Amino acid sequence: VCKYVALELKSAFEETGKTKEVIDTKYGFLDGKGSAVKYTQSDIRLIEVTENICKRLLDYNLHKERSGSNRFAKPAICT
């Protein structure tokens, strides 16, 4: 299972790493200080990816007749 968690995390980071968005953090509670942070280097990106990892893992099918990590497989995409 850890293998597929790592694969899905890598895939999700590759998908979200293509944006050029910048997050403005110049809205401090008292002093209004802060700086702009690229989305690709933000904590928000990490949180969003980890929140969606369970949904991605539910796409896998479990094959009882196979052994080891081959028991898990994503269904083939038919177009």
UniProtKB/TrEMBL annotation:
GO terms for cellular component: endoplasmic reticulum. One of its GO terms (biological process) is innate immune response. Keywords: Chaperone, Endoplasmic reticulum, Immunity, Innate immunity, Signal. It is found in: Endoplasmic reticulum. Coiled coil: none annotated. Belongs to the canopy family. This is Protein canopy homolog 3. Its main location: endoplasmic reticulum. Residues 1-71 form the DUF3456 domain. The keyword Signal applies.
